[in-house]
Amino acid sequence: MISYIKSILGLNTDTKVIEQGAVIIDVRSAGEFATGHIKGALNIPLEIVESKADDLKKYPQVVVYCRSGNRSGQACKYLTQSGLNNVIDAGSINDAQILLDASGKQDAKIVKDEVHPLSQPKNLRKDKSLMKVLIPTDFSVQADYSYLMVKKLEEQLNVEIHFLHIMDFPDTVTMDENGLIETCGEIDVMYIKDQKKIADQKLSQLKVQYGSHINTHLKFGKITNTIVSFAAEHHFDLIVMGTKGIRGIQEKLSSTQAQMIARISDVPLLSLMCDRSDLIIRDILFVHDFMEDDKTDLPLMHKFSEFFDANFHFLYIQAESSTVDNDVLLKNMDEYAQSHGISKFEKHALKTSDIENGVKSFLKSQDADIVFIGTHGKGGFFHKSAAESLIKHLYKPIISFHL
Q1: 124 occurs within a structural domain
Q2: What is the pLDDT of residues 194-220, one digit of tens each?
Q3: Pairing, β 87-92 against β 158-167
Q4: Segments in 1-69 forming alpha helices (H)
Q5: Each residue of 327-339: b (16+ CB within 10 Å) or e?
């Protein structure tokens, strides 16, 4: 899908040629890399690719790919800004293989690691309790990414999937429970009905595409407020949103919408920027204010701890000018793990200017498959804006929730 849209926008070009001696870089995580990669490619995750720029300057050309083309584009931006002149964005792994084949690289096949220590264990128990998940959709590829992410969760969790499409009409346009549409006269009712018919057809197509097990809903209203109110009224456990489109295309469900939802929703939000269908959840980064007297019960945390064979990384980030009692901090981390039934965890702390820089710095030395962050409205480092900044800039699945 991304490859097709890029082609019609002119973002792909037939002039790309892979030079002799070029290095192929896969910027996905180690776990994703192991599920299938181009033979001979180096695995340099996006989070550390900028720090490897000097090492890559010895190659005449650097060719970058990922799962769907989003992370590869960001990696190329980092490398170009670091002084590399001959960087090729090969896009998705399939696009990269086609490009390499067209350049005469006959051995550019996709291979898998036969034995990989990061593969998901097969003997894990599956959660029997039901988790209701809401996927807001504008029928873009980002909604597809959301569904694929939920399917990864479904490997260990019992998930009920709901798609919600919102038609962003003025408040003067209403629709009751029986589907009766009314307007104040400024907008033609037949136009609204025609647009609703198109949306209904697209929602029906989702059932054809994904299966009759999914649930679909259509609402009129402002996008952010309608998502938040619908999730709360129907007692959803998680909202999942794809947040970043291709440059040049403006989706209705953008990172800005996700940021606003993270700010006001009491239902946790899982946001992601790209296709994570290769994701293996083994390392979870939990960014939290462990110096707060926090007794919040987090059902999602319990589920990830119990039903994924994952190692938690507890990270406390403090301002450069502040001081904390390390003994108290470590004790609080131990107590938090015990209260949430987390047995596999490591404790980390660092000083930096803000949460976003702290998380990015940490991920350069310790990879994580998914990031949890709890925020509050009290101000300071862990204000809600901390999660919003990560949602906009971090190429990791992020679960944000209110404390």
Answers
A1: no
A2: 999 999 999 999 999 999 999 999 999
A3: unpaired
A4: 2-9, 30-35, 46-49, 53-56
A5: eebeebbeebbee
How many other β-carbons are positioned within 10 Å of the β-carbon of residue 104? 10
Domain-embedded: residue 117: no
Exactly one of 66, 76, 184, 274 is catalytic; which is it?
66
User: Nearest Cα to 348, choosing from 339, 364, 398?
Assistant: 364
d(CA 257, CA 50) in angstroms, rounded, equals 28
Q: Which domain holds residue 91?
A: 2-111
Number of structural domains (the chain) is 3
310 and 387, same domain (yes or no): yes
Q: Give the model's pLDDT for residue 179.
A: 78
For residue 120, what are the contacts with CB-CB under 8 A and spacing of at least 6?
Answer: 155, 280, 281, 282, 308, 309
Q: State which of 214, 244, 272 marks the end of a domain.
A: 272
pTM: 0.83
- In angstroms, the CA 342 to CA 336 distance is 8
Do 22 and 63 sit in the same domain of this protein? Answer: yes
Say whether 184 is catalytic.
no
Q: Are residues 287 and 262 in the same domain?
A: no
Radius of gyration from C-alpha coordinates of the chain: 22
